[in-house]
Amino acid sequence: MEMFEMMGRYEHEQLVFWSEPTLGYRGIIAIHDTTLGPALGGTRFWRYDSDRDAIIDALRLSRGMTYKAAVSGLNLGGGKSVILGDNRVADREMIFRAHGRAVESLGGRYITAEDVGTSPADMDYVLAETDHVVGIYGRSGDPSPVTAYGVFVGIRAAVAHRTGSDDLDGKHVAVQGLGHVGYWLCKYLADEGARLTVTDIDAGRVQRVVDEFGATAVDPDAIYAVDADVFAPCALGAVVNDDTLPVLKFGIIAGAANNQLALSHHGDALHEAGILYAPDYVINAGGLINVYGELHEWSAERSKLKAGEIYSSLRKIFQTADDESLPPAEAADRVAEDRVARARHLQRSFV
Prior knowledge:
By secondary structure, the chain is of the alpha/beta class. The chain contains 13 helices and 12 strands. It has helices at 3-10, 51-71, 93-104, 120-127, 144-163, 180-191, 203-213, 265-272, 280-283, 286-295, 300-307, 310-323, 328-343, and strands at 14-20, 25-33, 39-40, 43-46, 77-84, 110-111, 172-176, 195-199, 216-217, 230-233, 252-253, 276-277. The chain is globular, with a radius of gyration of 19 Å. 50% of the residues are buried.
């Protein structure tokens, strides 16, 4: 597939490549849509199998950010960055300063933040070259607790829709991925009396959650066959696919990972199987809300309160899906697309 065909498939406005070989920097910035405001999305640092895989990831993730902002009622567009390389590298300053130069070249059309493989410390390096960065120490900082809180209330919303009560006491939740967001989600769930089964490729993370929250650990590949009320994917995407669908026993899938459906028809398959899916860009919007709050100087309490609205957003989407006999992912897309379409009649105010 040619480059412009790839961009056209996802209806992107701009795709930027930036390379500084002597500094070890290779970066891609994808801007999907700026109808609602400047494109905002984090920087992912990852060792991709190919340049093509990195481009597709940036395109898919940035499109998801447009939908996430739209359905959350935020005045932002969707963007995403990826840096190709080993995110375990210790000497990071010049890589992220080079990335800051790439962000600065867009003149405010794109605002970055942390994501998989990056941290607030990395964003401090970006800040040396551009003001178009959020998630900085001393400001909103690590968005993980707010992201996890949004997922937590989203799980409650899904449980309420399925059972008539959002009480999580005794509910069995399988959590995949125990990084910053997964850890905080386990804490919120354990505090509500949920029973946890967990997995991660990092044994240290698993042991911490087992020790602190009394969770049961399983091997990474075994998590899909766990017989639990809720599956919360909090690692990388595409976990609902042709291989995993036949073994899923969960009544609900509601987690923090982006792009949980490998392909769009997998949302239809979940719907046909009677599995309630909380669309990822709706339930994991807490991180975006957190950095949006930084842009507008919200208090931490206000950002968390806004993330709590994910509960009502999902309840409405689930009800719309039921009323119109749609998969929830399709119902959520309609809500997001409608807001963007209506906003195109307004004058842009972010430049």
